[in-house]
Design brief:
Layout (H helix, E strand, L loop, with lengths): L5 H16 L1 H4 L22 H4 L11 E7 L19 H17 L1 E7 L9 H9 L9 E4 L1 H4 L2 H4 L21 H7 L15 H4 L2 E6 H6 L5 H6 L5 H11 L15 E5 L3 H9 L5 E4 L2 E4 L4 H16 L3 E3 L15 E7 L13 E4 L13 E2 L6 E3 L6 H33 L5 H12 L1 E2 L2 H4 L9 H4 L9 H26 L4
Parallel strand pairs: 1-2, 1-3, 5-8, 5-9, 11-13
Antiparallel strand pairs: 3-12, 4-9, 4-10, 6-7
Amino acid sequence: MKRTLSSVLAAQSLLLVLLTASCSDSTQTTGGSTPVDSDHTVTTEAETEADILAYLPDTDLGGWQMDILCHDDHLSGIDTFTAESENGDVINDEIFNRTKRIEERYNMVYNVIAAENASDPWGAVGKILSTTIPAGDDIYDLVIFYNYALQGSIITGSYFYNMNAVPYIDFDNPWWHTEINDTYELFGYLPYVLSDYSVNSYQYANLLVYNKTVAANFDVPNLYDMVKNHKWTMDSFLEIVKKVTSDSNGDSKMDDNDTYGYATNFGYHALTWAYAIGERGVTLTENGAELGYQSDKFNELASWLYELLYTSNLTFEIGWDKPCDISWDENRVLFQAIWLNDLENFRNYNSPYGLLPYPMYDESQEKYYTYDDARCAGFGIPITSAKENISNTGLILEALSADSYHNIIPKYLETVVTQKLSRDEESLEMLDYIMDGRVHDFGYAIPDTKRYTWLFTENLKSSKGALASTVEKYSKATQKYYDKLIESYKTLSEMEW
């Protein structure tokens, strides 16, 4: 599902020129075909919601209320799916207007309910489902959740209806993130989905931000050209990091007063390196679970990353979910690992910055990869939902996703990424590579009791980068856990949907 992000603004500008020249052309509808193209064309104000949703039936739902249970915490959740009123913030106002458009078009009520649990915001949805589903309660029409928080209960608890059997949802449309389907579908059963209805799937993609002042001070090559020419690899990254890292104050020790080529937390951002070279912790197949981390390439990465993080003094450690202790404007960090959403913290900095994908293993790698964190959310329909409600939910979820693709995602990328945050057009082009390379890992989102996927970072230091014996130690129990989940998949696939 490629998002050609750098073409969004160009497409929008071209459309505005054409609309100015010919208003009559701008109001033509697209008939029954999907009104989009591969370049994620922006819908202009002259196009109506009828143009966007013309391929769906104009169904009057007679005031039906769609009740949506949604995770919520201080970083992501309910505010990205609903808005009480317009407040001048572009994304908030677009979400508010999307609700109005959908409610009016289908004569329905859109109601998002936060799963509140101050002590355990991640687990709140799971606790609710663990009681309502066994009781057969038909309370919620849709559930938005952290897949990591629900873990194996998503499958073993038979929480969700088969999304492959939901009316009106068409995975051929570009607003559906079908890489999720590839990861979580088995035997034809798909427990949940993801689409452009969730801005979180863009916000929590992992990437690198680089300091242009530092790059200039150390005569770093043109990094954008390296990416575009397929030269941005682990080796070239390490060479540049070594060139920049230095004992700035000359006291013969490396601390927060010195200059570093790289800054990152040693947890979820460090884990992204495994995905960057094409590894995944766990992949489910109809023949059993396939465990990653067993290739020569992975073992080389583990040794490489151990040296980069723990023995070389090349990396400055950032606390989990905390800003870097070396301020960006001090110009003493070249590369910093972030989520796209973290760019909000950069808006008041003076030092210019650019965006980059994680490097490839080597030049033979097909493309740049990154990980879309568990905060990107998933959408599931409770298995206890009535058939009529499932059909209504499918219609509205498809409409919400299409509307978001046209109206919210382009404005998020334009307003939040380009106008407020990024300082150059080439960074927007870099987002092409980043978003096109987003992957998901069954083992990350639905971990086994041994947390096999996480052993890459959790055991990296203690093993001194030699993880082969740790992988072997955990493999048997991990294989057994996921093979049991596969049996649950099989049982669910045999149900009548």
